[in-house]
Design brief:
The protein has 124 residues and is mainly α. It has helices at residues 3-20, 25-47, 65-96, 105-112. It is extended, with a radius of gyration of 23 Å.
């Protein structure tokens, strides 16, 4: 793996992580897409060695097609999931007028009230 490819994977993963930490659905979905692309690029660069096409030239080492097939499958699945999530986020935006993820009121109330001690039994 060259330095450029490693740097690109790091930038995509860092930007994707940064976007996932926001509270808007659009940024979260785009961040997940960037993380998926970083993983695809990592698999493609780490799993394949440079080689020639099996038809061209004389006897030379050929590239392994398995990482390429895995990445192609991942791209198709990611496209479908991202399209579905973006359509759901758009639907939520048309209903609510914003796409910010709010805290659940029940979770906030349960976090604020003191809990009863839980009996875990006797240690063994």
């Amino acid at each position: 793996m060259s330095f450029t490819q490693a740097a690109l994977v790091a930038v995509l993963a860092g930007a994707g992580t940064y976007l996932v930490m926001h509270r808007t659905l659009t940024r979260i979905i785009l961040g997940l897409g960037m993380l998926g692309n970083a993983v695809n690029l990592l698999i493609l660069t780490a799993g394949s060695s440079p080689g020639n096409a099996p038809i061209v030239g004389e006897q030379a080492p050929v590239a392994d097609p398995v990482p390429q097939a895995l990445v192609l499958t991942s791209i198709v699945i990611t496209f479908g999931v991202m399209s579905f999530l973006l359509s759901m986020a758009y639907r939520g935006w048309t209903i609510d007028g914003n796409d910010e993820v709010e805290d659940d009121i029940t979770d906030r109330r349960l976090a604020e009230e003191p809990g009863e001690p839980v009996d875990h039994g006797e240690p063994t």
